[in-house]
User: Which sequence fits this backbone?
């Protein structure tokens, strides 16, 4: 992704350290941070300096590399992987990447592990970028079919949370088809759900789309159903944090309500999902461990004050409690299609992608 004429990924290695874009400060401050230790990388995931399922997967992979630099025994490796997996429970990419690193490293002599771990983490990052590129191409066809014979017809796409390049190593998942369509000259306009409580839509998706020059409008989370009723949404494309083998889609809280409205209004609802986000062990989305985050994320909002500085303001009475479930599950019956790097599938076709063991 280009920021101020410079190409960035969201995560990269520099010597024996990992560099990240601090997403808690966007869209007002573009700051990169360098992390050198396992506790620092766990903090980056928990505090959501990095977030988004594919990106926290890649971050966990680099976290394994960092965590075994001094000691790379099986015992250390297992402890590092356990600590990383405990940082955030819902996105399966995190456990997938950490476990893949663990299995590959365990097969090597201890003395070779520290050096090769960097290479293995880079492979996971590169695979993510390639998968997102392919998702973009498959999803572009879906958008093209909505535009029909007139490529100048504006296709209005609603998205929730941030499933753009910031949520991945590069390229994005839900936004990848939008970037591909825009770059191919199709006319797209994106309705960006603000996505309370942390406002990943308003802060991150809107910023990304603006950087890329994609026309978009930020809407309050509650506006989507109304826009669908008035024919102003041609399709919904969201990302996912975990998808069951039968196509139940777990994504940022509020996704389910958009899927319900889309179903009622005959608006196609797609999830853009790289295959590492599919949990082949999981039959039912209802069994997913939904992360409960700090109630302060609901009680306070972050924004830029008139003095230009980031500040947090309380938006609920001091006497009130708040509850903050971070994800919900959209049942497969509400999902029109799942856009993967291997093509677009209906939820009931998903098992055809299952790797053979
Ligand atoms: O809590 P977050 O910001 O990590 O949640 C992110 C989402 O829900 C995204 O939609 C999802 O990870 C898809 S990312 C390509």
Assistant:
């Amino acid at each position: 992704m280009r920021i101020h004429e410079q190409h960035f990924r969201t995560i990269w290695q520099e010597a024996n350290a990992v560099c990240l874009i601090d997403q808690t400060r966007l869209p007002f401050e573009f700051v990169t941070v360098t992390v050198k230790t396992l506790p620092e990388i766990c903090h980056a995931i928990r505090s959501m300096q990095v977030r988004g399922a594919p990106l926290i997967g890649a971050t966990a992979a680099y976290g394994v590399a960092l965590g075994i630099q001094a000691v790379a025994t099986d015992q250390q490796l297992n402890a590092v992987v356990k600590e990383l997996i405990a940082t955030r429970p819902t996105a399966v990419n995190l456990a997938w990447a950490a476990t893949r690193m663990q299995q590959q490293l365990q097969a090597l002599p201890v003395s070779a592990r520290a050096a090769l771990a960097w290479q293995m983490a880079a492979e996971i990052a590169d695979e993510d970028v390639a998968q997102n590129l392919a998702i973009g191409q498959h999803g572009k066809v879906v958008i093209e079919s909505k535009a029909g014979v007139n490529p100048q017809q504006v296709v209005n796409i609603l998205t929730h949370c941030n499933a753009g390049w910031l949520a991945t190593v590069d390229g994005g998942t839900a936004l990848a088809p939008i970037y591909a369509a825009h770059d191919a000259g199709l006319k797209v306009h994106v309705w960006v759900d603000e996505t309370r409580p942390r406002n990943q839509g308003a802060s991150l998706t809107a910023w990304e789309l603006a950087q890329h020059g994609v026309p978009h409008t930020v809407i309050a989370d509650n506006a989507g159903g109304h826009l669908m009723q008035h024919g102003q949404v041609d399709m919904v494309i969201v990302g996912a944090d975990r998808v069951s083998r039968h196509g139940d889609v777990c994504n940022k809280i509020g996704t389910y309500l958009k899927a319900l409205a889309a179903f009622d209004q005959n608006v196609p609802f797609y999830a853009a999902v790289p295959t590492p986000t599919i949990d082949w062990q999981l039959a039912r989305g209802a069994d997913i461990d939904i992360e409960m985050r700090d109630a302060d994320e609901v009680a306070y909002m972050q924004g830029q004050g008139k003095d230009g500085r980031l500040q947090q303001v309380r938006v609920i009475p001091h006497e009130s409690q708040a509850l903050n479930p971070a994800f919900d599950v959209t049942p497969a019956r509400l999902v029109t299609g799942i856009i993967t790097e291997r093509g677009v599938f209906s939820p009931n076709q998903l098992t055809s992608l299952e790797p053979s063991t």
Q: What stands out?
A: The mean pLDDT is 97.
